[in-house]
């Protein structure tokens, strides 16, 4: 192995290493991170690699996750492989790397396995726990026929130790797959026969004797367009018809079929050529009008003509007609589609411009294929109608600024217009000259007056208006322009503010932070709608605005709005619609200063010096002396921080409480914590008590149970007599906090994990019917549970479930219903056990998350089984 590759597997040994320099000088770093979690073995796999270009080839360099290099002993790698390259050819694509356990290393957290594909120059790294001395890389990691080298090193926190000896091996070569025999459609010479169907069926002989066969891949190539298509079917399929839309009429195609084993495809069958049938020859419809075949065509009497044609018959698959209509004056084309039974189309009003020249044709549609056009017919739309201007008779005058009206809701009037064909109404245009703002309104043909909304006419502004005739979307010339002025705004009185406060700043200090602002009622104002209150915090420069009804003469500020000890000023105004009057006198006041809250006295547990005493429990009760003499005391706020992982918990208790017990599972074993408590008055909290430090007791070292059966220590293991095996193990003794056992089962065939829990007295567990898939290979282990803590796994035992029954007498419907009912009972028992565990597990923990996932899995299986049973019951 080259020195470069050896340095890659060793990792980064120092800032000045040559590998580090090469990594630092790489033009672009591409980082891959793949993570997979196995509930069975608790193995966490991380792959982190950076390719760098060197000497014309890609070299993979491990980007170290560690901040230092440990000095512990190197493990001894015992297999797979040999010490010389290229090593033996393995008989499996899932080898098990093995090494001797390293002992006596303080702080050791696991092992790191480094794997290098010398053929592809690809580096991969995996990490496992301290109790593991073997590892099988994912099957996808080993490319068939490639040469590999691997080693293992210890991991101590973020540091790695020296590497083991290097072992070389070769992955088994790829399986040689047979080529299927294609027997239709087509011939082996190009261009092949012309088919009589646009939906041909490709056929081939079934391939047998291929282990792991997963299906067939059909490849189709349109030689005319240079376009490829690929389809996959199952192992039992020997025919395939491509979608009709793929085969373009008249094109030449070639196809073949290949065997699939997972992602590997075999050699192609013989190539068969064929030609898609040519496109059908479609007839051209006969356009009957309007228009003539010579340009510019007749002038129509309408701008919404109905285009007509004769029905086309004798066309198989006729789906409709396509109409093309072009405005030749402005070079604009419109396209419309109608159904097969339609022989006319009326153009929508407003589409065709007046006085322009148009040409149109119609075509037959068969799916997406259109036939030749009908004859082209030309026509002209009628010219624009000259519309008369209405006569405006009021309000206003023809000179600006016009009279001042005595109403804010004037009525505009005009004489009716007669003798206009197609007239659809009137358009009234209003313009506020003062604000430069325009308004437009439309009314019907029988209307000769209009009053704009009162909110439009701003008091005292100058306006001008006119009216026009409407014929569809066409409007005629304006009437004469009439000017007027809106009446001036009413002079509103100022309310009298009565309190709280004084007219001089900073004003009195109130006894409340939720004062009631008061004023005398205003009378004699027409249209009075309410009052507007403005309240400003002059200390912070913040203003509050409130509106109340016309009968209200007070407003109480919501508690918590006004800051303690600040200076405020307020006034009140009359409201008439959106118009507000002048302010009342300005009144100043100050809110009472903030209450100085005392700090509680924390009693324990803990000491004021870090790291504090080691407690005997992980659910300590935090205690403090009661605080008295605080008006409005609402409770206490406790802050508890795990300084080891920098995580803070916050709790609130009532005013009568002087202790708080931390829930089980919240505090990590062996960590250092600090806590304090504060007084609460509403949302305000006082200063903290003294900070008290303590340490939780270290995690209990739990033993690994001894698994008895079923199964053996080597894969795939023996076949069980049923798919409901009973897992057995020896009882674990001497663990004072033993709460149960966790059984982990992994289906190696479907890559599915299962986890079950039992009580502390159990030494066996029977899997419910329907959980394990028949004929699959499994591996299992068992762990001790102490609360939410689980111990190391037992030995791993492999077994296989029996294949599905081959009995010639399948169960009756009644028997199947009874079997499903039994399965449901067992599954629901498992689900209820999970619910009980959820109720006693803290929500913000990994154990709680795993229990939720388990609950969801039971729920899906129960729903599926209930649905199947209901279907069977419907057959009786």
**Overall number of strands:** 60
Overall pLDDT score? 86
Helix content: under 10%
Strand content: 35-45%
What would you call the quaternary organization?
A: single chain
Description:
- It is a single chain.
- This protein is mostly beta strands.
- The protein is built from 4 helices and 60 strands.
- The strands form 15 sheets. Strands 4, 7, 8, 10, 11 and 12 form a 6-stranded mixed sheet that branches. Strands 15, 16, 18, 19 and 20 form a 5-stranded antiparallel sheet that branches. Strands 23, 24, 26, 27 and 28 form a 5-stranded antiparallel sheet that branches.
- α3 packs antiparallel against α4 (846-875).
- The model is unreliable at 1-68 (pLDDT under 50).
Task: Provide a short characterization of the protein structure.
The protein is mostly beta strands. The protein contains four helices and 60 strands. The strands form 15 sheets. Strands 4, 7, 8, 10, 11 and 12 form a six-stranded mixed beta sheet that branches. Strands 15, 16, 18, 19 and 20 form a five-stranded antiparallel beta sheet that branches. Strands 23, 24, 26, 27 and 28 form a five-stranded antiparallel beta sheet that branches.
């Amino acid at each position: 192995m080259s020195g470069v590759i050896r340095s890659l597997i060793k990792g980064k040994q120092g800032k000045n290493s040559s590998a580090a320099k090469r990594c630092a000088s790489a033009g672009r770093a591409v980082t891959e991170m793949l993570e997979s979690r196995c509930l069975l073995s608790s193995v966490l796999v991380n792959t982190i690699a950076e390719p760098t270009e060197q000497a014309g080839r890609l070299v993979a360099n491990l980007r170290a996750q560690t901040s230092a290099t440990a000095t512990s002993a190197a493990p001894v790698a015992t297999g797979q492989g040999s010490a010389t390259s290229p090593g033996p050819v393995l008989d499996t694509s899932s080898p098990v790397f093995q090494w001797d356990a390293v002992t006596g290393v303080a702080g050791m957290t696991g092992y790191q396995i480094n794997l290098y594909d010398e053929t592809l120059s690809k580096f991969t790294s995996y990490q496992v726990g301290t109790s593991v001395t073997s590892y099988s890389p994912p099957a996808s990691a080993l490319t068939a026929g490639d040469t590999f080298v691997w080693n293992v090193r210890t991991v101590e926190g973020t540091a790695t130790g020296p590497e083991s000896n290097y072992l070389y091996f070769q992955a088994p070569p790829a399986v040689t797959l047979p080529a299927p025999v294609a027997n239709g459609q087509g011939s082996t010479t190009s261009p092949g026969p012309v088919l009589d169907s646009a939906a041909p069926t490709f056929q081939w002989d079934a391939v047998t004797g291929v282990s792991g066969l997963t299906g067939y891949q059909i490849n189709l190539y349109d030689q005319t367009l240079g376009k490829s298509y690929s389809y996959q079917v199952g192992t039992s399929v020997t025919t395939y018809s491509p979608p009709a839309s793929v085969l373009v009429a008249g094109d030449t195609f070639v196809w073949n079929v290949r065997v699939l084993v997972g992602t590997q495809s075999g050699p192609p069958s013989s190539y068969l050529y064929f030609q898609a049938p040519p496109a059908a020859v479609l007839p051209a419809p006969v356009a009957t009008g309007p228009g003539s075949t010579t340009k510019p065509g007749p002038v129509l009497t309408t701008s919404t003509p109905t285009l007509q044609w004769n029905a086309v018959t004798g066309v198989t698959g006729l789906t409709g007609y396509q109409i093309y209509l072009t405005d030749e004056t402005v070079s604009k084309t419109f396209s419309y589609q109608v159904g097969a039974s339609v022989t006319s189309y009326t153009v929508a009003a407003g589409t065709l411009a007046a006085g322009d020249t148009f040409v149109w044709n119609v075509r037959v549609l068969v799916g997406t294929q259109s036939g030749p056009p009908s004859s082209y017919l030309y026509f002209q739309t009628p010219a624009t109608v000259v519309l008369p201007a209405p006569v405006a008779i009021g309000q206003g005058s023809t000179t600006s600024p016009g009279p001042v009206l005595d109403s804010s809701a004037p009525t505009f009037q005009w004489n009716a217009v007669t003798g206009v064909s197609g007239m659809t109404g009137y358009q009234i245009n209003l313009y506020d000259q003062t604000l430069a703002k325009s308004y437009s309104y439309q009314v019907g043909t029988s209307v000769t007056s209009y009053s704009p909304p009162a909110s439009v006419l701003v008091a005292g502004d100058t306006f001008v208006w006119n009216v026009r005739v409407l014929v569809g979307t066409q409007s005629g010339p304006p009437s004469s322009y009439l000017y007027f002025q809106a009446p001036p705004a009413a002079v509103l009185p100022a309310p009298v503010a009565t309190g709280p406060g004084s007219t001089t700043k900073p004003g009195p200090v109130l006894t409340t932070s939720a004062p009631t602002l008061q004023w005398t009622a205003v009378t004699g104002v027409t249209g009075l709608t309410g009052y507007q209150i403005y309240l400003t915090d002059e200390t912070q420069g913040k203003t509050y605005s409130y509106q109340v009804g016309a009968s209200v003469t007070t407003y109480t500020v919501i508690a918590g709005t006004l800051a303690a000890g600040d200076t405020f000023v307020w006034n009140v105004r009359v409201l008439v619609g959106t118009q507000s009057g002048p302010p009342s006198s300005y009144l100043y006041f100050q809110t009472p200063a903030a209450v100085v809250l005392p700090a509680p006295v924390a009693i324990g547990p803990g000491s004021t010096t870090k790291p504090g005493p080691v407690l005997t429990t992980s659910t300590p009760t935090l205690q403090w002396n009661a605080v008295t003499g605080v008006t409005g005391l609402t409770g206490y706020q406790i802050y508890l921080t795990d300084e080891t992982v920098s995580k803070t918990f916050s709790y609130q208790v009532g005013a009568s409480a002087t202790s708080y017990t931390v829930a089980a599972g919240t505090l990590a074993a062996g960590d250092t914590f600090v806590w304090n408590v504060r007084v609460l008055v509403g949302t305000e909290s006082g200063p903290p008590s003294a900070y008290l430090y303590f340490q939780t007791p270290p995690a209990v070292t739990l033993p690994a149970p001894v698994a008895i059966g079923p199964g053996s220590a080597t894969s795939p293991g023996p076949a069980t007599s049923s798919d409901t095996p009973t897992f057995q193990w020896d009882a674990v003794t001497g663990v004072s906090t033993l709460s149960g056992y966790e059984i982990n089962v992994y289906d190696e065939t479907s890559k599915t994990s299962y986890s079950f829990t039992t009580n502390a007295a159990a030494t066996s567990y029977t899997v419910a019917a329907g959980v394990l898939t028949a004929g699959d290979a499994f591996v299992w282990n068992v762990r001790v549970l102490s609360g939410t803590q689980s111990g190391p796994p037992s030995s791993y035992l492999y077994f296989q479930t029996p294949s599905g029954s081959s009995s010639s007498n399948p169960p009756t419907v009644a028997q199947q219903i009874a079997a499903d009912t039994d399965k449901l009972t067992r599954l629901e028992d498992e689900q209820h056990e999970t619910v009980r565990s959820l109720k006693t597990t803290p929500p913000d923990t990994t154990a709680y998350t795993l229990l939720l996932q388990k609950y969801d899995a039971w729920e899906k299986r129960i729903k599926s089984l209930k649905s199947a049973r209901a279907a069977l019951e419907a057959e009786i």
